[in-house]
Amino acid sequence: MGKTLFDKVWAAHTVRELPNGMTQLLIGTHLIHEVTSPQAFGMLRDLNLKVLYPHRTFATVDHIVPTDEREEPFSDKLADAMIKELRKNCAENDIKFFDLSSGHQGIVHIVGPEQGITQPGTTIACGDSHTSTHGAFGSIAFGIGTSQVRDVLATQTMALHKPKVRRINVNGKLSPGVYAKDVILHIIRMLGVNGGLGYAYEYGGSTFDAFTQEERMTVCNMSIEGGARVGYVNPDQTTFDYLRGRPYAPAQAHFDAAVDQWKAFASDADCTYDDIVNFQASDIGPTVTWGINPGQAIFIDENIPALADLPAKDRGTAEEAYAHMKLRPGTPIKGTKIDVAFLGSCTNGRISDLKEVAQHIQGKKVKPGLKAIVVPGSQGVSAIAEAMGLAEIFREAGFEWRGAGCSMCLAMNPDKLIGDQLCASSSNRNFKGRQGSPTGRTVLMSPLMVAAAALTGEISDAREVFGIHG
Amino acid sequence: MSLAKISQLAGTGVYVAGDDVDTDRIIPARFMKCVTFDGLGEFAFYDERFDANNQPKAHPMNDPQFAGASILLSGRNFGCGSSREHAPQALYRHGFRAVIAESFAEIFFGNSITLGMPCLVMDGRDIRALAELIAEAPQSEINIDITAGQVGIADVTFPAMIPSHAQEALINGRWDAIADLLEGLNAVHATADRLPYMQKA
Question: Is residue B45 in a domain?
């Protein structure tokens, strides 16, 4: 009987079974950043342990970096202490650090793929829940806590309980103006924010076959928002073409041999899954959230659900959401005034996201009085965008063009909402207070929908704003 | 490294109602600007407990009746969102030694067990019944029996579930995996040697 990619990668990385029945799993690639690693290095020092495979850990700085005034020392002393601590830990332990001065700094989930560090058939861990992004390459990638960062540094392994595998098929062609972001928001809406608990998600079907590597990353990125710690897509020619020639990808002479090995990791045609769910691409429309978790989502032309429209189990959170979002149940979300537009994050801060938006906003202007910022996911993305003239298009349209980092996705740097501002955001979480103000409000959507909101000053249907017809 | 064997826990409880309580709520990101976990305890649920002027709001954790509670009760999908260990660290340092909920997000669950803070799953009706008993007598002792999978208060006992791997780890004092992982280092090297991408360029 055939095996899934998950089974094959798990088997290839299994070190041994632990006394409590968990698996000691080798983590081939470890990515670290400044927020969740310093305590782990402290624990290593306390235990007198060393980094076992320094050449398999890669670092960058993303969460706390300012996106405007980037000279050190940072005005925020705590942030400054954190970047210095990471720099010191990397130097002392011989770990490659994509520092601000490297030209390659950025959000860890954008830097890994961009550098070719993220590869099929591998295991990846990072102290960040959006590590599932890397599954787009047919790796299995886990978001982990700081004690596990310590475990990986010291032993290159973690203790894990093997999840089940759910295949999620999306078939058909997406309508114009509907994007990978809408696909994952729709999946989470339908399966629930905890629907993936205990599962790894394998995404497939003709929609995924047609997706670019970056679109697959957008979907895998938000697996955790549906409760699945791991999400992946089987590697194919799209994946191999993306990786060829990247700095940490196998060298040209060995690349074809590597591709043969990678192909063998893909799920077999006759494998079985613990569960299968099917979606049709044509059923998916531009999707926005109305509440305080990513599952509270509707199509742009739907009304915010009334309490009576919701299953009893969802009503408690819905009432909390109405109160926090100050939105009226039973009314359209379209037309809701926004204060801020944020384009960026590990979900949608890649060059393809910026290209798609730039081609539609050329010659148009952000609504006066509105704050609209573009934060490229990495310095690499930023450099390409500058070279292609995209940055200039954004600036001319009235967007602030910033330096690379996580920025307003979680607002650990100076980019924050103020008071109860409402933000049209291409990020991944609309939790209460997520964007830096406890009363701030987040509406998640695709990058082009963010641009539409930025131009009109209200939540809008990008298809109408930009004349996109099916 | 010898760890405590955690098979029984006792303490008073506090009920923080709601489903999908995310880790941003448990510890807002601005408090993660730190290089150690020390001092996180006072910021647990900060924005739920305090307003913009740092004045306390009505919240069960601010209610003197529940002061000193070491068992936290909540709803479905507790600890969803970010992988930040700062969340269970903040709860632990606030004084919590166990969390009872209808279900837990996976990363939060694992992070909590690694700290020796058990997460037990109970039926929603039972949690609300337990919460009512706590409300009636806030200083009643709750007894958690990890081995038996039970939570008791006064003369009432509720079934509570904890996955077997976590149960074994707690009972046997192996909840922090590092010692087990270090014992396997020879096998780690053997596994790494078989994987082309693990080799130094």
Answer: yes
Tell me whether residue B154 is in a domain: yes
Q: Which two tokens stand for residue A24?
A: 């000691």
Residue B201 covered by a domain: no
Touching B: A residues 346-405, CB under 8 Å: none
In a domain, B47, yes or no: yes
* Beta-carbon separation of B20 and A28 below 8 A: no
Q: What is the DSSP letter of B184?
A: T
Work out the minimum CA distance from A79 to partner chain B, whole angstroms.
Answer: 6
Peptide bond into B138 cis (omega under 30): no
Q: Which residue has the tokens 């961009």?
A: A114
Contact B177 A22 (CB under 8 A): yes
Using an 8 Å CB-CB cutoff, list chain B residues near A152.
none
CATH number, domain at B88? 3.20.19.10
Q: Report the complex ipTM.
A: 0.97
Contact of A87 with chain B, judged by CB distance below 8 Å, is answered with: no
What pLDDT shows up at residue B1?
59
Give the closest of A22, A64, A128 to B33, CB-based.
A64
Q: Is A156 on the interface with B (CB under 8 A)?
A: yes
Q: Closest to B19 (Cβ–Cβ): which among A22, A29, A317?
A: A317
Domain that holds residue B126: 8-175
- Which segments of A94-226 does DSSP mark as H helices, in order? 108-115, 146-155, 180-191, 206-210, 213-221
B201 pLDDT exceeds 80?
Answer: no
Taking CB atoms and an 8 Å cutoff, what residues of chain A touch B107? 129, 143-145, 224, 229
Provide the whole-model pTM. Answer: 0.98
Beta-bridge partner residues of A164 = A199
- Nearest CA to A324 among A197, A193, A192, A417? A417
CB-based contacts of A382, cutoff 8 Å, min separation 6: A376, A391, A403, A404
> According to DSSP H, which parts of A48-179 are helical?
77-93, 108-115, 146-155
Q: Mean pLDDT per 10-residue run, chain A (470 residues)?
A: 97 95 97 97 97 98 96 96 98 98 98 98 98 98 98 98 97 98 98 97 98 98 97 98 98 97 98 98 98 98 97 96 98 98 98 98 97 98 98 98 98 97 98 97 98 98 94
Domains and CATH numbers, chain A: 5-265 (3.30.499.10), 286-465 (3.30.499.10)
Question: How many domains in chain B?
Answer: 1
